[in-house]
Amino acid sequence: MKKTNERVSLENWAVNDELLSLKISAAWKSFKSEHFAFMAICFYLFFDYVKPDQQYPIFAILPFLFLSILGAIVGWYMDPTSKIQFSALHTVLLLFGFHAILSSLFAYDSAFAFAHFELLRTSILIIFLITAIVKTEKRLFIFFLVYFVSNFRMSQFGFISWVKRGFSFASYGVTGAGWFRNSGEFGMEMAIFFAFTICFVFFLKGHWKGWMKWLMYFLPLSAIGCVLASSSRGAILAAIGGLLYLSMFSKQKFKAIIGASIVLGVAYWFIPPE
């Protein structure tokens, strides 16, 4: 990639400038132009992360999560561009699933073990579907945008809750929806979200204007705020590790290290004694 007038020049890249600028109309147009399989897997990501059925009764009328998975499977079968290309990751996942079956067979209570096997089975299926359907650069970019929207729904709520209590410590930390109702898991997810949004800010900030630029700047801020508010030492270490990793592989190491040091210094200042 080459920089031209502080904008990233993306020659031979499938993502156009309007989409990089995060114009809502361009993002929606690109999303609608994709195959049904990709739409379904995006809907799955949103419903699995946000869990709107737990907050709004209208979303509990139909099993939207199941329907989105079913739609992704049917769409994958109908979409000629969605093909599974086996890699080391897929092999490891299948071995892990086989190991889980053996463990359940020889468990102290096999019935109890197999009663919870659906969680692992569904997770492996979803990973296969994502790697088969999200095959192009444009799809990957839109998929990340859906991921950002899903996480921002939680991060802004957690960050505002932390601000309202005066950045103070709470034994319950902050929580999200669905899988992230536990503060520890929520903090780890926010650490991952923080690393992704930092990369987007550094590489694509030249494409953003107006309120969109400030919104994208707020994403990593809300994420790191939730990491600190979660009262999870593991999440804090994960965020620090992400910053150090990005600093090590940056072309401007000195600026990256200075920036990371400032972020860590401010974070340390806000970490409660508890």
Helix/sheet category: mainly alpha
Strand content: under 5%
Secondary structure tally: strands: 2
The oligomeric state of the chains shown is: single chain
Mean pLDDT: 84
**Number of DSSP helices?**
12
Characterize the largest beta sheet: strand count, sense, and whether it forms a barrel.
Answer: 2 strands, antiparallel
Q: Record the strand order, biggest sheet.
A: 1-2
Pattern of helices and strands = EEHHHHHHHHHHHH
Task: State the end-to-end distance.
Answer: 45 Å
Q: Radius of gyration, Cα only, in angstroms?
A: 20 Å
Helix content: 55-70%
Shape estimate = globular
Q: What are the low-pLDDT stretches, counting only 5+ consecutive residues below 50?
A: 1-12
Lay out the secondary structure.
Layout: E1 2-4, E2 7-9, H1 17-20, H2 24-33, H3 36-50, H4 64-78, H5 88-105, H6 110-115, H7 117-133, H8 137-164, H9 183-204, H10 210-229, H11 233-248, H12 253-270
Antiparallel strand pairs: 1-2
Helix pairs in contact: 3-4, 3-8, 4-7, 5-7, 8-10, 9-10, 9-11, 11-12
What does this structure look like?
The chain has helices at 17-20, 24-33, 36-50, 64-78, 88-105, 110-115, 117-133, 137-164, 183-204, 210-229, 233-248, 253-270, and strands at residues 2-4, 7-9. It has 274 residues and is an all-alpha fold. It has a two-stranded antiparallel ribbon with strand order 1-2. Strand 1 (2-4) and strand 2 (7-9) form a beta hairpin. It is globular and about 50 Å long. The chain starts with a strand and ends with a helix.
